[in-house]
């Protein structure tokens, strides 16, 4: 606590250094909280994560950060994980290809985005996005998930989307809006300079850039259990997401829709499964993670995945073959 005590010093450099220390403490505690089984984690790591988050929030306020989203995120309680996905610090291309890509084994890659301008020299935040692209019109998905009957789409500016669905200035509006699976880098090339294509994407069979899509929304957005045909690196820029994965071998237990348009989507509500209607779902084995800023999750082809935003968040997916 002494190392990150908050003083009244106006020295921004000193406060920023303390903020980095607080973040480092949170990162160490978070790793301990998400290693092994939750019941085996010592309570001291929970306390350390809580103190680090509180000090980080105070420092954000003292530095005058306008992005209350970051402060809200700092207080995010860790979710107990029973079957955590393995994580590695920047594995070599050879190791990644041999142990994960070729074996179609999910893995979280940490510290592989540190050099992105979006996480370093030009850090993305709500304010930054509004300044860069606030006036641009984008398609917004309306509804908690695309399998809902009431799901629809609407065109609106990024600024209007943020006001209504991220900052929730219209407090009576309970509808969820999501800027999902949008190729924003084709529409707004200036944002492309803030990100970097992960080197792991070069391991594909085709000599072409991966498909890049942006996912930006408030807490509570859901991508129902589904699979995609390509390799996927899901890169988290800010915010946290809960992700649950089922390998393609579990497909017989997952009840895909019979409708051809939704055959890559499960009929099962992962968070509230109807086991009378879908009894075999209880036999499906899965792994899970809380994806945090600066982490990339490798999702193999045909690997079923369910995603829920635990806070306002932004992710970028890289799909390649």
From TrEMBL:
Pfam families the UniProt entry points to: ARM_KDM8_N (PF24472), Cupin_8 (PF13621)
GO cellular component terms, semicolon-separated: nucleus
Keyword annotations from UniProtKB, A to Z: Biological rhythms, Cell cycle, Chromatin regulator, Dioxygenase, Iron, Metal-binding, Nucleus, Oxidoreductase, Transcription, Transcription regulation
GO molecular function: chromatin binding; histone H3K36 demethylase activity; metal ion binding
Name of the protein in question: JmjC domain-containing protein 5
Signal peptide: none
InterPro entries, alphabetized: ARM_KDM8_N (IPR056520), Cupin_8 (IPR041667), JmjC_dom (IPR003347)
Organism the protein comes from: Ixodes ricinus
Cofactor(s) recorded in Swiss-Prot or TrEMBL: Fe(2+)
A Gene Ontology BP annotation from the UniProt entry: regulation of gene expression
SUPFAM superfamilies assigned: Clavaminate synthase-like
Iron recorded as keyword: yes
């Amino acid at each position: 606590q002494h190392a990150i005590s908050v003083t009244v010093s106006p020295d921004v450099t000193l406060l920023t250094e303390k903020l980095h220390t607080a973040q480092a403490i949170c990162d160490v505690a978070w790793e301990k909280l998400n290693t092994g089984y939750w019941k085996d984690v010592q309570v001291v790591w929970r306390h350390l994560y809580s103190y680090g988050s509180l000090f980080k929030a105070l420092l954000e306020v003292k530095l005058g950060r306008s992005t209350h989203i970051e402060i809200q995120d700092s207080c995010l309680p860790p979710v107990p994980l029973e079957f955590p996905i393995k994580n590695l610090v920047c594995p070599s291309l050879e190791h990644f290809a041999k142990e994960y890509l070729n074996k179609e084994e999910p893995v979280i890659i940490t510290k592989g985005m540190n050099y992105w301008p979006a996480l370093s020299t030009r850090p993305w935040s709500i304010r930054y996005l509004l300044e860069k692209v606030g006036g641009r019109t984008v398609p917004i998905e309306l509804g908690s998930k695309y399998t809902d009957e009431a799901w629809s789409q609407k065109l609106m500016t990024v600024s209007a989307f943020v006001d209504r669905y991220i900052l929730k200035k219209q407090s009576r509006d309970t509808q969820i809006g999501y800027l999902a699976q949008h190729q924003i880098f084709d529409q707004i090339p200036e944002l492309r300079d803030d990100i970097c294509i992960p080197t792991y994407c070069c391991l594909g069979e085709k000599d072409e850039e991966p498909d890049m899509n942006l996912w930006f929304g408030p807490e509570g957005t859901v991508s129902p259990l589904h699979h995609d045909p390509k390799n996927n690196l899901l890169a988290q820029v800010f915010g946290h997401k809960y992700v649950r994965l089922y390998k393609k071998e579990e497909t017989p237990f997952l009840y895909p829709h019979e409708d051809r348009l939704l055959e890559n989507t499960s009929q099962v509500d992962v968070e509230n499964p109807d086991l009378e209607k879908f009894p075999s779902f209880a036999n499906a084995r899965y792994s899970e993670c809380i994806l945090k800023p600066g982490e990339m999750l490798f999702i193999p082809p045909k690997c079923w995945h369910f995603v829920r935003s635990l806070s306002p968040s932004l992710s970028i997916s890289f799909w390649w073959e």
